[in-house]
Write a structure and sequence with these properties.
single chain
Amino acid sequence: MTSRGFEVRKLFLRPAVAVHAWATGQPWEKVVTLSDLEEGTLAMLVLRTADNLRHIKILSDVFPEASKTAETAIDLILREPVVVK
């Protein structure tokens, strides 16, 4: 895209790696270290990710597989200490 004159935003992979680590069961302390974010910032990232996944989840009539995957992902990331159940 750059070679064609389009502006390209830098892609930050660390937040995605951190959410993936959290979703796969890594301890919170390890995920905080991996993310290089403050705990509150990381918690907000997880909550915003869950909110985005909820939007995908409601598309079950059109995208049933993506909807089910989003539902599973929500369950994996919304756990203590991000949320208190």
